[in-house]
Amino acid sequence: MSEDFSNYWTAHLYFKDPNNGSYHRVPVLPVQPLLGGSQGAKGGLTVYYTQFDLSRDNLARQRIQSFKPGFRMTVGSPAATSQPRVGLTYQCLTGQSRGREMPDFPTGPCSGGIFTTHHFPACWDGKNLDSPDHQSHMYNTKSTNGFLNSPACPASHPVRMPQVAYETVWDTTKFNHLWKSGQPNPFMWSFEGTKGYGTHADYMFGWKGDSLQRAMDKSECFYDGCGSIKKQQMVEANKCSVKELVREETDGCEFFFPSLIGYDVNMYNRAQGTSWKGMITSLPR
Length: 285
What we know:
By secondary structure, the chain is mostly beta strands. Helices cover 8% and strands 20% of the residues. The longest helix is centred in the C-terminal third of the chain and has 11 residues, at 260-270.
């Protein structure tokens, strides 16, 4: 969509070679959405804005208010050590099957890669564009995985916003031969998250003018069938890229992680008002 300039972020996935301990960045494959529409995409993630679910808008039952300029939020936490609430999942891709949704990394190699999903909360307090933890101004009523309508918002967060979700496909296939039977999961997040519970994502609103509100007010505004906002060909979308600002070789490095989970959380807490978190650099060994 040519009117969408929002920022979407997730931590990056790495493979830790069990033979020499080196870390290798896992590439991202284009997601094929449930109803298509991404032919020609080069990597990236797929973002959904749903009014109700994937087949109905149900605008007569609930009106959706667009995010406002300056709005941001996160979902999940890199410090999580137990199973997160629903909406943050992994799937082991095999052939044309996405497999069942799981709260943690797959326990064995996946022939088609690892599929991750992040569902954001959809209830806003109606006042704050952000909060110190980037989450308290929102409330999550989601009770089941999948693209189902979230239950009603509470009085503390009464404003219903678009239900935002990310889907990402990590191409883990070239590392499958290095994952031997009986070995623990060799994949980890860029904040040294060897358990999948720490999966998290950031959202920063950036749609032009009232374009997202027009889409949310439009009945049957699904996928590329939404005539109320401007679209562009994938060949044009692929031209949009961010220049590399810091030249840093990370692939193949043997990182030294002195309690990096705590380091990451401190950085997260210091970065009030930004989405810069979960970053790692090559630390001296």
